[in-house]
Amino acid sequence: MGYSTTTEKFDEFLNSIGGEYNIYAPVDMEGMGRFSDTDSVRYEKIKSIADIEFVRKSDFSPKEVLLPITQTLFYFTEDSVKEPKISDKKILLFLRSCDIHAIKRLDQIYLKSGFEDIYYKELRQKVKLVLMECEHSFENCFCTSMNSNKTDEYNMFVRYRDGKVFVECRDECFGKYFENTETCDLKPKFVEENDINVNVPENVDESIIKSPVWKEYSSRCIACGRCNVVCGTCTCFSMQDIFYSENKNAGERRRVWSSCEVDGYTDIAGGHSFRQDKGDRMRFKVLHKISHFKKRFGYDMCVGCGRCDDVCPEYISFSNCINKLSQ
């Protein structure tokens, strides 16, 4: 069962829970795109449903809400260590089916791999998920090939159309706000097919690992790491110790996003570095997404959102690469 309400009534709901929740959704950021006079769609706090970009795919994933780009782990002085305070507010997060599947991958890595990351866990347990439907496939998406086009793992579903808001509440804490609202039959629509089909190879053997296909990416890739930044399932990070200018013995340790594609990521003590060749880095990333992760956890890491293809300045296609490996 669903509810049908007006924009004004739904905004009243958002305002009512605003004291308890920080509400994040994809927002059209005018003039903030990669090129002049272009926009960017990324996640920001919102106060009205009119702020949400329902039509276009977000350029960045909702990952940055759960894994901040820069996150202080603790502050230190000469004789003390102190963890930062975390907001008591819960998080309401609007996202599409593929991104809900991506969060499952983040949970697997940070909570179910033999240890629990306390910083991720503290944010993750505050999150409620709001499903945004995809009525059609976006450019470069291949979610149907990765079985991430459908989901039932959400707390609320919201459809915004012609000035009316349709809501399905699967969480009682939200349902109470719509008790006196008109009811209706409501089910989310999911993408049934994409323009791009991907065939993931069942078995990765030595022939794929040593294939000359990777040499192509040695010449094309510029190691910018954009594909990792926009990916909803990439989790690589580095550590930074920041020392304050007024006291060289005090500072903070930060976890900062990084990328397996960039120079220096695999540097180790003694000056050695793994995967100096950009084709080797591409091989590592691709096989991690479609083979290594699956061998360990039973399902692919990639969810087929297509953002890596959207953002690559060299027009390197992740989906094309997978199909090449299958061939």
From TrEMBL:
Which GO MF terms does the UniProt record name? iron-sulfur cluster binding; metal ion binding
> What keywords were assigned to this record?
Iron, Iron-sulfur, Metal-binding
Q: Is Zinc set as a keyword in this record? A: no
Domain spans labelled 4Fe-4S ferredoxin-type: 210-242, 293-321
Name the domain of life this protein comes from. Bacteria
Which InterPro entries does its entry note? 4Fe4S_Fe-S-bd (IPR017896), 4Fe4S_Fe_S_CS (IPR017900), Helical_ferredxn (IPR009051), Sulphite_reductase_A (IPR014259)
Question: Which PANTHER family does the UniProt record give?
Answer: ANAEROBIC SULFITE REDUCTASE SUBUNIT A
What protein name does the entry list?
Anaerobic sulfite reductase subunit A
**Record organism:** Clostridium tyrobutyricum DIVETGP
